[in-house]
Amino acid sequence: MQIDKKHIGHEFKAFTSVAEAGKLKLFCKAIGEEDPIYQSEEAAKAAGYPRIPVSPTFLQALTNDDPEKGGLLKLINVDIGLILHGEQHYDYLAPVFVGDKVTCQQKIVDIYDKKGGALWFIVSETSMKNEAGKMVAKATGITVVRNPDAAKK
């Protein structure tokens, strides 16, 4: 199995997600985030925010709203049982607040292999822009694909 590098530069269809208060509340509960600025308008304003900000890792929840889930796996034609989530990091450029609409656009920026093709790495970047078109964050992720054919060599 080999992953075709022709996919480098492929842009997936952009989609928009709303940073909803209820979803943020559930997300904070799930990760154990108890800072009141993520729940209370008063606490957020007392901390100097104009509205309730979203917690930094909540941006991942917004990317999960992609209506074409699994687009990367479909594009490279790989079974989900062969992948690992290798890495994820964010560059935060501007705050996101409850009620903001964030448009996400994922792009494949690199594909490479290691261990003689036993592992393939797909690097993607997701740009996140607010309603004004201002970039609020960039997510970089690496998906690792195990090559089942490598064991046969």
Largest sheet: 5 strands, antiparallel
* Amino-to-carboxy terminus distance: 12 Å
Unreliable parts: none
Overall form: elongated
Q: What is the helix/strand order? A: EHHHHEEEE
Mean pLDDT: 93
Radius of gyration: 18 Å
DSSP strand content: 25-35%
Helix count from the secondary structure assignment: 4
Name the strands of the widest sheet in spatial order. 1-3-4-5-2
Which structural class should the secondary elements be placed in? alpha+beta
Q: Give helix % range.
A: 10-25%
- Count the E strands: 5
Structural features, described:
By secondary structure, the protein is an alpha+beta fold. 19% of the residues lie in helices and 33% in strands. The protein has helices spanning 21-31, 41-46, 58-63, 71-76, and strands at 15-18, 83-92, 101-114, 119-129, 135-146. The protein has a 5-stranded antiparallel beta sheet. A hairpin with a 4-residue loop joins strand 3 and strand 4 (119-129). The longest helix has 11 residues, at 21-31. It is elongated and about 60 Å long. The N and C termini lie close together (12 Å).
Quickly describe the structure:
The protein has 153 residues and is of the alpha+beta class. The protein is built from four helices and five strands; from the N terminus they run E-H-H-H-H-E-E-E-E.
Short descriptors:
153 residues, alpha+beta
How are the SSEs ordered, and which strands pair?
Elements: E1 15-18, H1 21-31, H2 41-46, H3 58-63, H4 71-76, E2 83-92, E3 101-114, E4 119-129, E5 135-146
